[in-house]
Amino acid sequence: MLSKKTKYGIKALTYLARRENNEPVQIAEIAKNEHISIKFLESILLLLRNSGFLGAKKGKGGGYYLIKEPKDISMAKVYRILEGPIALLPCASHNFYEKCDDCDDESTCAARRLMTEVRDNTLKILESNSLADIAF
User: Fold this and answer.
1) CB neighbours of 94 closer than 8 A, spacing ≥ 6?
2) Where does 50-135 show beta strands of DSSP type E?
3) What is each CA distance from 127 to 57, 80, 130, in whole angstroms?
4) What PROSITE patterns is this protein classified in (predicted)?
5) What's phi and psi for 54, nearest 5 deg?
6) Among candidate residues 37, 55, 35, the one with its CA nearest the CA of residue 46
7) How far apart are the first and last CA of the chain?
């Protein structure tokens, strides 16, 4: 199941992408319009800023803004930043691979085969959608 952190991160990014201009938006505005706790949203936006998706301006007229065009923001990258691995099992992950302790032979493991297929299809969907695709 998708975490609230990832769901709210996607909601915040789409809110920023839908703005007519790319001027900074205060956290309180995003939180109010997207029904997200300000404290929780602060931590999400900071993570997205540190990951290179958002910029921030302090002071009057400050807030968060996109530093990339929505078409250049891959939902697979957003997912990995907010949620972690796309694969549901560590042995089926491209970027976060770990051998399972309880597995004698990965090549014959039915769970790994199934979860690799789930990962591949999920990755295909996430990689083929940008922020622009889902925001507009």
Assistant:
1) 86, 87, 119, 123
2) 54-57, 63-66
3) 30, 11, 7
4) HTH_RRF2_2 (PS51197)
5) -125, 155
6) 55
7) 24
- Residue 66 DSSP one-character state: E
Pairing of strands 54-57, 63-66: antiparallel
The amino acid that residue 101 corresponds to is: D
Structure tokens at 53: 């998706």
The answer to whether the beta carbons of residues 71 and 130 sit under 8 Å apart is yes
Question: What's this model's pTM, rounded to 2 decimal places?
Answer: 0.91
Residue 102 in 3-state DSSP? coil
Task: Name every residue whose Cβ is closer than 8 Å to that of residue 122 and which is 6 or more positions away in sequence.
Answer: 86
Show the tokens assigned to 133: 């695709």
